[in-house]
Design a protein that fits this description.
21% strand; 5-stranded antiparallel beta sheet; Rossmann fold; 17 helices
Length: 601
């Protein structure tokens, strides 16, 4: 069978002579770029209403770059780590570092000190930017990674001359002879002010090949093992922006305003974490390239997000599945006027057909669909087509210049509607590799530019890509493959269920059987409490049986959760919504051992 190609043409060349900020901030007349309202803000701080236009952005980027160069003499190729929730100066710090030729490695602000230390050491970071809320972890990790002794820590904070740890934190352990409560660290705002008085002290890399330089060291989610540093070049992010914009037919003539992807004055909710490639490449860079405002939200909270949508008249929502589940299950949504929203995209993990249907019923006038991508492809490879009705359960159609293969277990290429492992290639993935990890690179990044996604998928005859599940996460029951996502999608719509994660556990007769870890909804908790009003083990059993019966009534015999239902407080996930199966598997081992010892049923 032939390989699968996009049905959309992107007629312009992909530049390899530009960095990300040169493309976004300096190339104002790119043919794919729609016009922006002259006074329309680029970045808007949700909490304060503070906003930046293009000229102020450029000035802040320039001043910050000069101050960083003066203080730390950052050279091309040096690595800077950003350890912060979303902040209005977060992208400014990224672009300033890119102006200097530095590589940016963004870290999850919920990391422990040990996890951050691992990333600092893996990347040999020279400088660390941290938010006030994560500073105590940053200090401990930086000390352990021998970064603190260089005094190379900058704080994202409200404008003030300097940031004192004593103002916001209880003392932490002494670090390299310093008492942390007496430590004063520079803020981004302070460095921008310093930069105003400095002459240009660096030479920005320009010209042929600059786009091939590494822009980001983004870490994999670590769902099945230790995170790996993925080296993403400037050209990869730029290509993905161009592909997404062309796929959305942004500048194509003949569409009514309500049919267009982007209109003058639009605004997007910036709640996806910027350290994640989906938030960075699509939610930030595509949005800004298309002339929208990006409303900076530090961290997603449903009620606050609803208030933000109304306050800023947000038109575009970029979400991950847990956010959508909260939206469709919360009664408070109905108390807000969300008529301003026109577009919603869901990515980073599959969204069930049931939840998708609920969302479309809740907001029937919103154009909503899914996309698929991964860090190893600098974000998206497919997206739903805005001008067509999105297919429930589909991850959309391939982006321009993206080619896909579906490879069966025997190595043969699959045809339409035949499942197998998804392989892709395109300009967004060209040249990406795992940094300093040749064996892992050889397994994922194949000759001729192919990337093995590790996902089981199939291609429909209409060009829609359907992602079934991670191949490594499939459960083998009597030789049959069971996708955990299928059972999770079914269980999560039960009234008793708030969240769920499914993994396989050993079974003497069938090899493996599914076990479901379930977080109960308020209705489920009430059912457990029963007439007594207090949860107890007796009340749990009927609820567990009800959930097992829910699967039995709708799924084939081999898909039943015969490993049982275990009630938990949370299901471990990364911030993009992907379940951390390795942690669930560890928890499942404990459940199995306890059952063998007769400690649980």
């Amino acid at each position: 069978m032939p390989e699968f190609h996009s049905n959309v043409v992107q007629p312009h060349s992909y530049p390899t002579d530009l960095t990300i900020p040169q493309f976004l901030l300096d190339e104002a007349s790119h043919p794919l770029r729609p016009r922006r309202l002259p006074c329309h803000a680029w970045l808007v701080d949700d909490a304060t209403g503070r906003s930046y236009g293009l000229e102020e952005l450029r000035e802040r980027v320039e001043c910050l770059a000069k101050a960083i160069k003066a203080r730390w003499n950052i050279e091309p190729g040096d690595v800077a780590c950003l350890f912060s929730e979303n902040h209005i100066d977060y992208p400014i710090a990224v672009w300033a570092l890119h102006r200097l030729g530095a590589v940016v490695s963004c870290a999850n602000p919920s990391y422990t000190a040990g996890e951050l230390e691992y990333q600092l050491k893996e990347t040999s970071a020279r400088i660390l930017f941290a938010s006030p809320s994560s500073l105590h972890v940053a200090l401990a990790a930086a000390a352990a990674a021998n970064l603190f002794s260089q005094d190379n820590i900058v704080v994202f904070a409200p404008p003030q001359p300097a940031f004192s740890v004593q103002c916001c934190f209880r003392p932490v352990r002494p670090l390299d002879g310093y008492r942390a409560e007496h430590l004063t660290l520079p803020t981004v705002e302070q460095l921008v002010t310093e930069g105003w008085d400095l002459d240009k002290n660096y030479t920005e890399l320009r010209g042929s090949g600059v786009g091939d330089r590494v822009a980001l060291l983004s870490f994999s989610s670590g769902t099945t093992g230790l995170p790996k540093a993925i080296a993403i070049a400037h050209k990869n992010v730029i290509a993905d922006v161009m592909q997404v914009v062309a796929h959305a037919r942004v500048n194509e003539k003949g569409f009514k305003p309500e049919e267009r992807f982007a209109c003058p004055g639009d605004a997007a909710l910036g709640a996806l974490p910027l350290y994640h490639i989906y938030g960075f490449a699509v939610n930030l860079h595509v949005v800004l390239f298309c002339g929208m405002s990006y409303v900076v939200v530090p961290k997603f909270n449903l009620q606050k997000a609803l208030q933000t949508i109304v306050r800023h008249r947000v038109t575009h929502l970029y979400l991950v599945p847990p956010m959508v589940v909260m939206l469709v299950n919360s009664p408070i949504v109905m108390t807000y006027d969300l008529s301003c929203v026109r577009f919603t995209m869901v990515a980073a993990a599959p969204l069930s057909t049931e939840v998708t249907g609920k969302f479309k019923s809740l907001l029937p006038n919103v154009r909503m669909g899914q996309a698929f991508g991964m860090t190893e492809t600098a974000s998206l490879i497919s997206q739903f087509e805005l001008q067509k009705e999105s297919i429930n359960g589909s991850a959309g159609t391939l982006l321009p210049d993206t080619i896909a293969r579906i490879v069966k277990e025997d190595g043969e290429l699959a045809g339409y509607d035949e499942p197998g492992e998804l392989w892709v290639k395109g300009p967004q993935a060209a040249g990406i590799c795992y940094s300093n990890n040749a064996p892992a690179s050889g397994e994922t990044f194949l000759p001729e530019g192919w990337v093995r996604t590790g996902d089981k998928a199939l291609m429909r005859p209409d060009g829609n890509l359907v992602v079934v599940d991670r191949l490594k996460e499939m459960i083998k029951v009597n030789g049959y493959q069971v996708a955990p996502a299928e059972l999770e999608d079914h269980l999560v719509v039960h009234p008793f269920v708030q969240d769920v994660g499914v993994v396989g556990v050993p079974d003497d007769r069938r090899g493996e059987v599914p076990l479901a870890f379930v977080v109960l909804s308020p209705a489920g908790l009430q059912a457990v409490a029963g007439e007594k009003g207090q949860p107890d083990a007796e009340g749990e059993e009927p609820v567990k049986r009800a959930l097992e019966g829910w699967v039995q009534a709708h799924k084939a015999r081999y898909k039943w959760v015969e490993g049982g239902v275990v009630l938990v407080d949370t299901v471990s996930k990364n911030p993009s919504g992907k379940i951390l199966r390795r942690l669930l598997r560890e928890k499942a081992k404990g459940v199995v051992e306890a059952r063998r010892e007769g400690r649980v049923g």
